[in-house]
Amino acid sequence: MTAFSMNNPVFVTYLITASIMILKLMGQGWMTVYRMLKVDAGLLNPEDIKAGPTNRNPRPEQLEINDYVDRSRRMHRNDLENIPAFLAAGLLFVAVGPSLMLANILMYTFVAARACHAIAYATKRSHETRATFFTIGSAVVIVMAVYVLVAALS
Amino acid sequence: MTAFSMNNPVFVTYLITASIMILKLMGQGWMTVYRMLKVDAGLLNPEDIKAGPTNRNPRPEQLEINDYVDRSRRMHRNDLENIPAFLAAGLLFVAVGPSLMLANILMYTFVAARACHAIAYATKRSHETRATFFTIGSAVVIVMAVYVLVAALS
Amino acid sequence: MTAFSMNNPVFVTYLITASIMILKLMGQGWMTVYRMLKVDAGLLNPEDIKAGPTNRNPRPEQLEINDYVDRSRRMHRNDLENIPAFLAAGLLFVAVGPSLMLANILMYTFVAARACHAIAYATKRSHETRATFFTIGSAVVIVMAVYVLVAALS
After folding, report:
1. Do residues B120 and B130 lie in contact, with contact meaning Cβ atoms separated by under 8 Å?
2. Out of A55, B108, C22, C61, which residue is the most buried by the measure of CB atoms under 10 Å away?
């Protein structure tokens, strides 16, 4: 019997929440693209200010940091610091056989916390608001990792 | 029966493409090291301009951003935004039992798209060229994640 | 028979080392938070210099780069370049059935190398010291990925 099977409801919870978080992570890249095109600024590479279909009016200042675009990159970096760790910790967590209720609580809490974090970040809420949702998400990953470590050592 | 077995040809495709992408990701770090040593510039930390076996002629300007080195770091960041998501999405995709043909198409397309993206980035091709290959890779991950989500919810 | 089972001692080694590395990765985020609060500087977002419970005395220079805080962010970025790749490579490595001794050597070496890397980075040791531990960790991931690739292709 493997834990990684569609017959295991804990694994199904993981599949749902993990695929949502992967879509969030990929979507953040597209938010950066959208914002770059919208403000026609915040480009990253010297060659990006050559004229082309997506840059009709190239200017050197397009390479300067633009907060609207850079905010999306900072959100992306925060995602990279949290989502891959969730994807790994969640899979290991499934492997050690937690209760369905605990898995549901932890995994859906992570999804909700990261959604709120993204909204708080995009709408420039206070540092404290953002930090609260970051903390909740981070705590979920830490709890899952400690749970796995204890189960594997015992 | 587990999907994560060498007897499952879809899993073998995943093992091949995932290990190639892990090697690409690790190789990008070594490209940065190679470029730093080659131009003797683009260092990151204040302590890196102390004299030592790998820095015989330390100078403060070694800490300035050097496009040749920083380009490799930007490539690395782009990898980090895409490859871990592929590694996770691919594994979940295997778990929900897609056809071998679909898995082959998606996973080898991702590898090819990321290889082309790296070449386009390293050789300073136009933003549009780079964006095309980024889009193909990103689409593969999104398709796999949506496929998993639909399978898990149904 | 699945390789991803608590009955497989190689998988247990993976669970232990992977959960430790996930905790290291999450801990790095908290080191940044700790350092930001300690020096009351190194903030990242314009809205972070609004007065609030965690910022009683906001000043524009809090947004300047602070090496003490930024060092933790650079350590985090280095973790992101290595730990997710280890988590993925290690899982694939378990799947292809290596000997327990080889798995133990590689996985515990990675943990030790990353711990030494973190200490060397935090205490501003020479570039060569840091590079040595980075190289050991990177080599472990590369060896595991090549091992998986060869096993999957044969």
Report:
1. yes
2. C22
